[in-house]
Amino acid sequence: MALRALRGDITTLSVDAIVNAANSSLAPGGGVCGAIHRAAGPELARECRSLGGCATGDAKATSAYQLPARYVIHTVGPVWQGGDQGEPELLASCYRRSVEVAQGLYECHSIAFPAISTGIYGYPPEAAASIAVETLRAADTAGFDVVLVAFDEGTYDHYLQLLGT
Fold first, then answer.
1. Considering the entire predicted model, what is its pTM?
2. b/e map of 123-138 (b: 16 or more CB within 10 Å)?
């Protein structure tokens, strides 16, 4: 597995799958979720409605429509409530389940993750970055190119420090 960090816009990446930091109804929202839905086009929202939502810590896949990626994997991160309500375990589950879902997709060998739960869900970025890197290093990602995509400089710096680059 290659695990690396990139600063940029996840909606522009030509990878097999991008991960959407989704809400539990899988409806278009704000932040990265809104950006992914806008870039993919209205067909994405239609397909998401057919999935019946998604539980926190789980993941579901759709086509990517007008995005350069082939698939979108939607995962629902936890809302930060201070860290003692199972948030670290649920966030780690988002990364694990997204990888598992990607492994089940046809010819999927690359996946890009945003900083799940760090936007309106309020997860502290440094703690979230640690969970992302630790979880992905421990996951069975043989043969996968895994990219942690940071929209902002601070998150990107956290990733670089944790990856030792």
1. 0.96
2. bebebbbbbbbebbee
Distance CA 76, CA 53 (A): 10
In terms of Cα–Cα distance, which of 63, 59, 157, 55 is closest to 113? 59
Q: Are 22 and 52 in contact (CB under 8 A)?
A: no
- CATH number of the structural domain spanning residue 146: 3.40.220.10
Task: List CB contacts of 46: < 8 A, sequence separation 6 or more.
Answer: none
- Tell me the C-alpha distance between 142 and 128, whole Å: 23
pLDDT digits (tens, 9 = 90+) for 141-150: 888 999 999 9
Total number of domains in the chain: 1
Q: What is the pLDDT of residues 25-67, one digit of tens each?
A: 999 999 999 999 999 999 999 999 999 999 999 999 999 999 9
**What stretch of H or E contains 149?**
strand 145-150
Three-state SS for 27? coil
Q: Give residue 68's domain range.
A: 2-163
